[in-house]
Amino acid sequence: MDAQNNPPSSQISDANRATVVDLRRIFEPLTALLKPEIEPIVVYDAAAQTSLLSQPDPLK
Amino acid sequence: MTIREMGRLLRSGKTSSVELVEEALHRAETIGKQLNAFITIDRDKALELAAERDRELAAGIDRGPLHGIPTAHKDLFYTRGIRTTGGSLVFRDFVPGYDATAVEKLRIAGAVSIGKTNLHELAYGVTSKNPHYGFVRNAHDPDRIPGGSSGGSATSIAAGILAFSLGTDTGGSIRIPASYCGVVGLKPTYGRVSRHGVLPLATSFDHVGPLASCVEDCALVLSAIAGPDPRDPSSSREPLGDYTAKPEPRLDGLIVGVPRNFFFERIDAEVGAAVRQAIIGMERLGASVREVAVPDPEALNAIHRVIQLSEVSALYHNQRDPSRFDLPAWNLLEQGRLIAASEYVNAQRLRSIFRREYDALWREIHVLAAPTTPMTAPLISETTVEINGEAEDVRMASTRLMRTANTLGDPALSLPCGKSRSGLPIGLQLIGRPFSEAFLLKLARSIEGM
C-alpha cells in the first residue's frame, strides 16, 4: 500500500466519523440477509441481473 | 421552442441553424450569465458548426431531428479541445483529446453545442452551489437552487436558452434538477447510454441521460445517444426501443403502482397533492391504480450511500489537499475513506437481493408513480428544509426518493406535474422495469398531454 495515498485516519473529522456511524446503524442489519452460498460478488449489470427482458410493453 | 418546432422552421426556410445558435448564444451570454448556467461558451466553434449544418441542409443533407439544433453539455462530458472541469479545481485545466461517445453521437446527429453547463462540484451534490464557477440559480426564482448536479443544464432549459442538454445521474442528478426547474429528465437503464468520456463519480451508479423542455425532446435525444459502445464495456447490447412512438390516447390495461410506504411519507403537502392528481389523471385515461408495498427504499438508500461513498473516495484516493474542494465534497470524500472493504462488497451483494425483489414487483405492476423530490426548490441560503415540521438536510431530502432507481439501475423519468402556490415546479417520478424507456416515454407523453 502506498502510504502517501492514504490520509492518516486521525485527520478525518469527528462529524464525518459520526455520519458514517449513523449510516452503519442502518446498513449493518441488512447484511443479515446475505448468505455466502447464494450471493456471489457481482459487477453490476442491469441486463444480466433482471429476469424481465421479455416482458411486453403494456401500451403496445 | 421544442426540437420539433425548431426543425419545422429550419426545414421551411423560416430560420437557419446559425440564427438558432446565435439566439441561444445571446441568451446564454445574458440570462445564462445571470443564472451562472455555463462554465464555458464557445461562440466561434458553435457558429462555425451551425453554418456547416446550414450548408448541408441547403445541399439536401438532413441528419435528422437534431440537425442544426443548439445544445450544451454538462461540464462532465469530455469535449475535444474544450476544457472539461467537472465543476472542480482538480480539472480546472483539463482539455480532453477526444469527445465523449454521447457528445460524438449528438454531433453526428446534427446538434450544435454552444458550450459546457455548470454543475455541482464533481457532480457530487444536489445544490449546484459551485464555489469555483459560481452558484447556479433557478430560472423560476434566482434565489433558489436549480438542484443538481446537472443544475446548469436544467436551468438553461427552464430559461429557454436550450431545448435540451446532456446530464448525468448517480443519485438523482438528472431528476432532481428536472423536478426543481420544471423540465423533463430521464435517467435511462444502467448501460443504456455509453459513459465513455464522462468523468466518473460512482461507477456502478453513473448514468448518462437527457434533460429537455418536453418528453418528446427527451425521446429524440435518447434515440440519438442510446446503444452499445465498444469503448464502454458496461454499455448494454439489449435492443433499442422505439423511443419516439406516439402516445396512446387511452391507458387501458396499464397498472400503475403507487407506493404505500416511504415515497409519500415526509413530503410537502402541495407536492403530494399534485402527484396524486397526476395519478388520478392516469386513472381517468383507463389505467388501474394499485397501492403496493415497495421493497425497503430506506435499505436501498443505505446500500447506495455505502457504495457511492466508497467508489467516489476510491476515485479520488490521491487527493490530499482539502483547499481544492468545497467543504461538503471534502466531507463526503472523508466519509468514504471510513467505509470498510467488506462493507462495500456486501453492499454490492445486497443489490442482487433487491434486484430480485423489484423484479417480483414489476410482475405485478407496469410502473411506479411517485414524487421526484419531497419538496420544491429550496432557497440557496438554506442548508436544511422543514418538511411537515421536521428539519432535514437539503442533500438528504433531495436524494431520498432518488437512490432506489440508481441502486437497481432501473429507468426513471421526472416530468412536471403542476406548480406550488408560490409558482415553483413540482415533479412526478415514473420508475419502470429495466430497459422499458420506450414505454416510460410514451406514458409520460400521455400524462404531459392530460
Q: Please report which band the strand proportion of chain B falls in: under 5%, 5-15%, 15-25%, 25-35%, 35-45% or over 45%.
A: 15-25%
Percent of residues in helices of chain B: 25-40%
Rough outline of chain A: elongated
Major sheet size, sense and barrel closure of chain B: 11 strands, mixed
Number of strands of chain A: 0
Distance between the termini of chain B: 20 Å
Which structural class is indicated by helix and strand composition of chain A?
mainly alpha
Main beta sheet of chain A: strand number and arrangement? none
Amino-to-carboxy terminus distance of chain A: 56 Å
**Using CB atoms under 8 Å apart, which protein chain pair has the greatest interface?**
A-B, 38 and 56 residues
What does the average pLDDT of chain A come to? 74
Q: How is this fold's topology laid out?
A:
The complex is a heterodimer of chains A (60) and B (450).
Chain A lengths: L13 H14 L18 H4 L11
Chain B lengths: L2 H9 L5 H18 L3 E4 L1 H16 L11 E5 L26 H8 L3 E6 L11 E2 L3 E2 L15 H8 L5 E6 L5 H7 L2 E4 L19 E6 L2 H11 L29 E5 L9 H16 L3 E5 L4 H19 L11 H11 L3 H24 L2 E5 L12 E4 L2 E4 H6 L3 H6 L3 E8 L5 E8 L4 H12 L2
Parallel strand pairs in B: 2-3, 2-6, 9-10, 9-11
Antiparallel strand pairs in B: 1-3, 4-5, 6-8, 7-8, 7-14, 11-15, 12-13, 14-15
Helix pairs in contact in B: 2-3, 7-14, 9-10, 9-11
